[in-house]
Amino acid sequence: MKQEIDSLLPRNDYTRREFLVAAAASGFALAVQPVSAETMIVTDTEGLVAGDVKIPTSSGDIPGYRAMPAAGGPFGTVLVVQEIFGVHEHIKDICRRLAKVGYFAVAPELYFRQGDPTKYPGVPELVKELVSKVPDTQVMSDLDATVGWAKASGKADVSRLAITGFCYGGRIVWLYAAHNPKLTTGVAWYGRLITDKTENQPFHPYDVVDKINAPILGLYGGADQGIPNDTVDKMKAALKAGGKPSEIILYPDTPHAFNADYRPSYRKEAAEDGWKRMLSWFKKNGV
Length: 287
What we know:
Number of strands: 8
CATH architecture: 3-Layer(aba) Sandwich
CATH class: Alpha Beta
Strand order of the largest sheet: 1-2-4-3-5-6-7-8
Distance between the termini: 30 Å
Helix content: 25-40%
Structural class: alpha/beta
Number of helices: 8
Mean pLDDT: 91
CATH superfamily: Alpha/Beta hydrolase fold, catalytic domain
Largest sheet: 8 strands, mixed
Oligomer: single chain
């Protein structure tokens, strides 16, 4: 693959990394353009099977992105839940990173029935016109369907099932841990814990602590303007009171979306520490 890419490079100072970054940048949601190319991580597909897939559900197929090692298996399985911006290039890259360390990673398009999140020019429009219309019950059902599809592939060991998610997906991690009793473990990256309720989102993580079935690691930023520290403290206290084997790490002076390497919010030290903690948490809990 490297030779194929190198053969496409212009004969000037345009490096292979710049080529890959430029190609990847076209796969991001409009609401986050322009991307921060200087810090963006681009993971290749060497040694992997990776690409778009169709996932059957009770109401028709939904698209998704799957990455796994090219040889061996079945592999421990990781559901990757999108940011608010959908399954754009960053989420696909997260799948490839997980596949590089031996996992079957799949990210279903959870807004598919309601629209395309990558086409909205700004976050307010995206939330009002799309995200608010996606029922949590639909999301839970689609994640269940994704697990079933992964199992049927013969390459995913869903007895070792993890979930991780970012922003919107971080909230979903906690909810799915309360929904699926067969979930092994999960890692939630800066997902809201306590917020306003709606008809489509009637519960939030703090409301379902007593139902959480698996150990969850939460990774949060102490300077996150959208997730107040007191809500993190309340969640910690509720987990402790409920005897749940979960843990929350709060990184001081760290903003929301600190793992989003394509955005100005990226914080390399916290992101790398969080990634190591996530992989360690998976292994510790049997995935």
